[in-house]
Amino acid sequence: MQVLVRNNSSARLLRSLQRLIFNRGLATVTDHTVSEFAPPTVPYAQVYSKPLPATLKLKTGQIFQGTSFGAPTSVSGEAVFTTSVVGYPESMTDPSYRGQILTFTQPLIGNYGVPGLFKDKFGLMEYFESDRIQVEGIIVNDYATKYSHWTAVESLGEWCARHGVPAISGVDTRAIVHILRDQGSTLARLDVGEEAHNLDTTNVKYEDPNTRNLVAEVSTKVPVSYNPFGDIKIAVIDCGVKQNILRSLVGRGASVTVLPWDFDFTKVADQFDGLFISNGPGNPKNAIRSVNILRKTLEIYQKPIFGICMGNLLLGMAAGMDVYKLRFGNRGHNVPAINMTNGMCAITSQNHGFALKDDIMPIGWKKYFVNANDGSNEGIQHIHRPVRSVQFHPEAKGGPQDTEYLFEEFLAQVRDAKLKQTGTKIYLPETLPKQEATIFA
Amino acid sequence: MASSTDEDNIQESHYHFNASTLALPMKPLMDSNLLQTSLQSGLSWTAKPTNTGEDDEELIPPENFTMVATWVYRSSFPKKKNFPFLKKLGLKSILTLILEDYPEQNMKFLKANDIKLFQFGIAGNKEPFVHIPEDKICDALSVILDRRNHPLLIHCNKGKHRTGCLVGCLRKLQRWSLTSIFDEYRRFSHPKSRSMDQQFIELFDASQVWKLVDKKLGAELGSIGFSTMYRGLYQRAQSPIRSTVSYVKHTQNVSAKLYRSFHHYQNSNSTTRRIIPTTSNLYRGSSLARNSSNSQFGSSTARVSYHFYSTAIEQHKSEAEPPPIYGKEVSDVILQHATKVDVKKVLVVGSGGLSIGQAGEFDYSGSQAIKALKESGIQTVLVNPNIATIQTSHALADKVYFLPCTIEYLEYIMERERPDGILLTFGGQTALNCGIKLNSMGVFSRLGVKVLGTPIRTLEISEDRDEFAKALKEIDIPVAQSVAVETVDDALKAAGEIGYPVIIRSAFTLGGLGSGFAENSQELHSLATKSLSLAPQILVEKSMKGWKEVEYEVVRDAVNNCITVCNMENFDPLGIHTGDSIVVAPSQTLSDEEYHMLRTAAIKIIRHLGVVGECNVQYALNPESLEYKVIEVNARLSRSSALASKATGYPLAFIAAKIALGHTLPELRNSVTKTTTACFEPSLDYIVTKIPRWDLSKFQHVHRDIGSSMKSVGEVMAVGRTFEESLQKVDPSFKGFQAQQFPELDEVLSKPTDRRLFAIGQAMIEKGYSIDQIHNLTKVDKWFLHKLGNIVDIQHELERVELLQNVPDYLLKEAKRKGFSDAQIASLLQNTTEDEVRATRKKHGITPFVKKIDTLAAEFPAYTNYLYTTYNASTHDIDFNDNGTMVLGSGVYRIGSSVEFDWCGVSTIRALREMGTKTVMVNYNPETVSTDFDECDRLYFEELSFERVMDIYEQENAHGVIVSVGGQLPQNIALRLHENKANVLGTSPVMIDNAEDRFKFSKILDQIGVDQPEWKELTSSEEAQDFAEKVGYPVLVRPSYVLSGAAMNVCHTSEALHKNLSEATLVSPLHPVVITKFIYPAEEIDVDAVAHKGKLLVHAVSEHVENAGVHSGDATLVLPSRDLSGETMSRLKDIAEKVAKAFEITGPFNMQIIKKNNSDGESELKVIECNLRASRSFPFVSKVLGLNFIDVATRALLNKDVPQPTDLMVEKRDYQAVKVPQFSWTRLQGADPFLGVEMASTGEVACFGKDKYEAYWSAIQSTQNFRVPKPGSGILIGKDDLTNEQDFVNLANMLSKDLNHPIYTSSPSVTRFLELRGIHAKTLDLPEDKKALLHAFKSNHIDFVFNLAQVRAQNVSDINYISRRSAVDFGIPLVNDPKCALLFVESLKRKREERAKFDGKLPSEIKSWAEYIGGNKC
User: Which cofactors go with this protein (chain B) (predicted)?
Assistant: First the structure.
């Protein structure tokens, strides 16, 4: 197994570290060098001062005309909406949004610009959840051409343009949400420039991202390690893992190894004290290989397992549950989820279009969290083994941090299990280490 | 609450009292001839524990709890048949101090229940201990105590001396165990018992006992109930007698320890948990007390009082005390008891009259709370003297008391009503402060009243800066701290701790004098020296200049579910009171990281403090890092929560009330979607901007700068989908974002005043300042400035285009999308009118779209009717088939138009709905009930401009529009609506216009033979002088253009007229002045009436207490009048009928009439004003007369079910009500507290009474910060040359001779004037130095100021101005009208006499509204 080790405390590794930071985030792990790597961007110079026309076409027939403020390219994808009021850089770089055209219900977007590429001491990005914009395009009501924030280095439009992502503003986003809500998520096309004038809806080509294996697109290609000297070793099955999930684990003292989505964990299971299954985009049925591996893992692996979002779906499928596509998905930072063990209701950050069918739970499993609004599944847990997963995002970024304690519980389970096995006292960090921002220009 | 279960558990329990815990050293039995009954051994509780489990030694036997925590009962027990309750207490003995006439049945009861009675003294001897040496008593006591090992009840009958003696002896003996004191007090608030209470506290060396409790038993007690009990005593002990500090400190330590031990018990095991005394025991105790007092003792005098008593014997040395622990324990404890609160009857405390800083938002929150309680089937009792509110309408609370929200009156009402719960967090700071005080006085525990929602302890912590800072330190949340210092050295020391740069603020209102920034110790030294010469105390704070100010509204339920409903960001950086800031919601310039950092902190705080309900957290956020500090936590509903509620559609107050009843967030529904839970965070898909409204130009000498003390009188909010749209929509009194002229622009930009937004306007639009330049001066975040820049760009572009026909389609559309009003666009173009712009844009199809405010950004279908319009959209959210009737609301609260018009609007809506008509409400004031979406069928949160109203009218295809119930604002657009073919219901707008136009109005009055004072409109100063000479002085001057100070004025001399016309106003043909003959002295009368097609239906005649010359909004009104003759009454009715007919009135109208008594006994009646709309006094007259005038008016307007005319004034009533204005002088630094023809009050209160004296007595006490002068305190009185001498002499006479107050005057001439008339007075020198001035007031014990000057002060060195202003600044009540002064002094005299004859009954004014006017009418 090839493992790339990162640790900024070691000067020896600095060169390779810088190289890594430059050319990849987690979603696209490669061992290419900088020169070999073509960034998915267009240069700054191509940011247009005069707005181009842009048109949003929905497969259901509606057309919205506005102006472009991003890249002058046209795209197609699945139109979805998020009700979050803050956190557009985090949302747009979240690998779970891969293949989607994202509508922000918050009407004023771009106010605080886009922050620079800061990295923390673990080499994880501070403000982005992956190394690139993952959404296909964005739809906003009112774009702030001029931003104001101390972390910002460029405007949202410049950032989108640099990453080749089209963006449209000046459209009635509330009307779009109405359509998506009433008719369900639909395919959409965002045309910019000349194409925007074509309002004919008959021969539009729509691409359905859910037919692609999006998980494979965003997952790491090779295993990568973080914080190698942690007291416990956690394996992360990367279906499109967010930076803050890794930070939530390594920041609490764990050593983390990120494995590709279809990596056969059972072969290395004995090397890890716990297993984590990450979030990720698209239809979980495309990741059936992960499910099979997980099913095998559940049979042989007795140590703690925790999953988030896609991880919840995959774990549920491995346990024998079915998934279905939600009509318009749950995307936002205000979703209440009730913890079935103590009845407490937490506000969670969510981003998913599929859910587990939990009306009949497989033997040995019970509901962990339930959505307080629509009653959909928000998590499952094994009745007596330390295996559980949640549909929402306890790592936040963006969104509320109310359920961060789940990471602590998971790591406590791992440490407990390890203590029982080894019988030795292990290092327990008191608090999350302070994050020191370092910038690599 | 599962009290019965607890009781069962206790009975079942196998733990028994362990005698060794409380072993008493035996003393030899001594003979004492004082003991009439021989002592008997009754050691029935010495059984050994039958079970020694592992936790045994830590457990408290339930019996023990009963013993150590039996209560002090206060009741008139011996004379009543109330012994049976002793059985419940499990008492075995009673020690009584004198032999009273115990009824036979009581003796029988004692005998039957084997309760021993011991007596000291002889019946009828009032002071039995006087001749008995203390050691004899001690001996006797020790005998009793030694022989008895079970509860002992000591009954002290009325006597302070006896109580004192006994407690003193007990203290000497240090024999506290197994002893309870049964004390009979009458009224707690009775002056006599008050002093007795104080003595009691002095004698009862509480700290000793507590130390012992703490040391000996505290840990084992583990009783939350217990700690609550003695905390009550502690706080009583804090009354300013002695050693306050040590008590407080000690309380905290003991509490902490007890809380901990309690917590420990909670966790030990389940058996333990069941038998440990908990709060439910306390509740059981109080409900027992309540029941017994109600059913067995008779309700008049029986009072069950403080729960306290304790045990302990030995002396000991105190050890190091454990550190206090705050919020966590509180919240943990609450969590353990998260069950539904068992209450049947709840008292809701209102906020009183509207004042600056405490305005209409509490009408909204109180109304919602009452709705929530009613929905849960709980009986509600509301105390609020604010008669203009909706919460005091008959439809809401079950019982309403129009009485002062003061501790004294609240206690009376609780005594009378016996509620089992109280809501304190819905009535602003007033209710909160009362609650804290009542709790510390032990009133709640005495009366068994549960404080619902956030516990008192949390409220106390959030109010106390030091405790608050300490509590937040426990959870590592940084707090902005300010240190109050009195010397320069202390200031330097404080700054050293806080860290430079610091800001210095003076603790007294000096208009910013002595405030400033200091970068280092040298600067601080010079600044502090200067400041301390001006004020006795200054505040040193860390400077956070330019930081962002952000607020979060957080909700927590009793089981710890938390949500943040809304966050808001201030446009103005830190330093300006959030009430005076422009605020946007949600925050716009915060990143996810910042937003959630502050959100997480807010939740951490609310959990730590243990808030149950709603709470507001204010932060300062460094604009260049993640550094932040908490500025303030309001653990109650606040103005911000009203704003958040309206901004999000989330019914915060309603939810908070439900949580107070024990509901959890997830179990409550989101009332907007009706399908999702209330435990979620609203997501906004629009932006809300709030702008405050100041009325500073109404005042003379007032400081216009804004800062940490709020000055605005109201606020407006607008909803849009761009910041530009919501900002420009916000106030129709301005044409969007515009420039005003400021000569010292940079100064105004850097030092904020009420007009800073327009200074930014000038800098951007006219001066071409760059964004950076403006940012450096104002520190306003550049994002806001960029957005303002977008507005300016469009303005310039429109100006460039010049002509309407040249304006391209896209520009017009863009302008509308950026919130430009038609009128604003017209003003930027050449020769264009608003109507032309409107026509053009409609031709281009540019009309607004209607969107819903649904709390969740359209994610789920919502059934809400809460709407706004926007041009940033392409579809409507709703369809328009209702054809409802539109009602225009009151708009922004300001001086002259306030909550009373909201009452009118809501009453109209309710009447319309009752008649089965669909309703559409338009209003844009977030503080109102009319903007609650459950009040009407459709609510448009929109400005009341012609453009917007017409757009909605057309879109809704409304059946008609009502303009006569929202005050002047809707009235102003009536004619234009009429001209544009809108169906204006009621009196024709043409007639409204006739009544508003002075010339037309006069002509019509002349035609119908109704008299009016002489008047003329003049265009030059000379003409004005001539006219004034002709009609004779004094004259009333009403200029159309005001340069400074108040607009209207009375001039008594030609010099004054000249001065007024030259200095304060501009007179020219363009700006004419209206001069009216001012009739003086004369009485003024208000007539409120409703007519239908010119026929008078109902009318009410209210008398002003003040003479004519005081604005009717500032006047004290008496209704029904007992002083007007029948002949006058019928002439008044005649006038009303004539006016109704002449103006063909349909709907409400109001007139002010002057009554001048001529020498021949005849009186002249002259109409001075007439408004063809509902007036300010409509709620007052409706509620006093028991007939809703608006209801009648609505029927008249709709021409449906119109009632027959009735004359309400002929009915004889055995009550009178008085309405009193509420002023906000304290907030208006420098403003002259003078009553004139220009209105100055911000609100009003009204109370009922058997006569006007009693009603006035309660009403004046309902005004904020009013205190009745203490007997014997000094009173400063003043006059000027125009003051009626007879009034002044009468006043002085009554004060000094009848009431025995030392009289002070502010000038030697006035002193001489009084001395000449045989009244002794002293001259009080009023120095200019505030410090010396305060000393002058303090050293002479000045407790009240009467200033009867009739002329407005010309400058700030006027001695009467200084007297009035000092009274306001030093918090001394001020009465500045002769008639009111006399009325008050007469009331004071009567009430003092009444209280002197104290008979144990509640004061006669303690009656509910229904009792006054007859139950069926309200």
Answer: Zn(2+)
